[in-house]
Amino acid sequence: MLIDTHGRTATDLRVSLTDRCNLRCTYCMPEEGLQWLAKPDLLTDDEIVRLIDIAVTCLGITEVRFTGGEPLLRPGLVGIVERVAALQPRPQISLTTNGIGLERTATALKAAGLDRVNVSLDTLRPDVFKTLTRRNRHHDVVDGLTAAREAGLTPVKVNSVLMRGINDEEAPDLLAWAVAHDYELRFIEQMPLDAQHGWRRSDLVTAVEIFEKLSARFTLTPEVPSVRGSAPAERWLVDGGPARVGVIASVTRPFCRACDRTRLTADGQVRNCLFAREESDLRTAVRSGASDQHIAELWRAAMWGKKAGSGLDDPAFLQPERPMSAIGG
């Protein structure tokens, strides 16, 4: 098992398939984009599947989430999903995506074994979407969500980040829209993971503010059971249910004590925390002919040193060198 010195066990693996993205969200990267990883540095499809196989069969991983960058840009995605779905024991398989391209791939991904998707959408207004992402692709995301629901990739979850003075007043409208379309909406506090290092705590739209904005239109009651466990989102029933809404308060109400995640970057580095400033190299071991047992031991060692918390509450907190697009969600 992947156990750390604070008694936590990682069972949820986040796998970044690429650092590339076809959007340029203002809270993630500059308009001109970033210096992408060179192709030889990226794990191959076979290497990805082998590492996931080790994680599932040797290390107790039960959930695999594919992320990016934008994972739909990975040419071999459907094949990777199919091979991971064939593992024994079979892990739960999900995908976090911006939704662009999901309309044409949802059915194939479902057939390959994908269980569900999380789609990022911060606004219902195409003009605001263009401001936030610097791309005119709002309709593609909406169409992708529809395709995911029709393909059975449910529950379809929508992730929204609120930016002060830009889309923060849309919170109730986003929830009403999500309920009407049978999507589960989760608001995520903006995290200090932008490539520009322009994040400011004073600009943060907090979980408390989000709850207040939603409560002005909806009756929110805590989901029962109220014990959240390792789930990142605090969830409420909307107007008595069955619709639910969640808030992931990574900054103001961190959930580090129950964290069950480990992360693998597109270039084969293990990160034991989203905000870690250190990584452990598995790619070199894979390419030098190391055994599965040796790679598993390297992974265990990487997780053993996980810190108690993210450090976001420390005035001396420093952002990791890699931005979110290069880490994976």
From TrEMBL:
Family: Belongs to the radical SAM superfamily. MoaA family.
Protein residues bound to [4Fe-4S] cluster 2: C256, C259, C273
Record-annotated Radical SAM core domain positions: 5-231
Quaternary organization: Monomer and homodimer.
Cofactor note: Binds 2 [4Fe-4S] clusters. Binds 1 [4Fe-4S] cluster coordinated with 3 cysteines and an exchangeable S-adenosyl-L-methionine and 1 [4Fe-4S] cluster coordinated with 3 cysteines and the GTP-derived substrate.
SMART domains, alphabetized: Elp3 (SM00729)
The keyword GTP-binding appears for this protein: yes
Catalytic activity: GTP + AH2 + S-adenosyl-L-methionine = (8S)-3',8-cyclo-7,8-dihydroguanosine 5'-triphosphate + 5'-deoxyadenosine + L-methionine + A + H(+)
Binding site for [4Fe-4S] cluster 1: C21, C25, C28
GO molecular function, a single term: GTP 3',8'-cyclase activity
Organism, as annotated: Streptomyces sp. R41
Enzyme Commission number(s): 4.1.99.22
InterPro entries: Aldolase_TIM, Elp3/MiaA/NifB-like_rSAM, MoaA, MoaA-like, MoaA_NifB_PqqE_Fe-S-bd_CS, MoaA_twitch, MoCo_biosynth_MoaA/MoaC, rSAM
A Pfam family per the record: Radical_SAM
GO biological process: Mo-molybdopterin cofactor biosynthetic process
Cofactors required: [4Fe-4S] cluster
Lineage, opening ranks: Bacteria, Bacillati, Actinomycetota, Actinomycetes, Kitasatosporales
Residue positions binding S-adenosyl-L-methionine: Y27, G69, S120, M191
Function: Catalyzes the cyclization of GTP to (8S)-3',8-cyclo-7,8-dihydroguanosine 5'-triphosphate.
Stated name of the protein: GTP 3',8-cyclase
UniProt keyword annotation of Hydrolase present: no
Involved pathway(s): Cofactor biosynthesis; molybdopterin biosynthesis
Positions of GTP binding: R14, R65, T96, K157, R261, T262, R263
Record keywords, A-Z: 4Fe-4S, GTP-binding, Iron, Iron-sulfur, Lyase, Metal-binding, Molybdenum cofactor biosynthesis, Nucleotide-binding, S-adenosyl-L-methionine
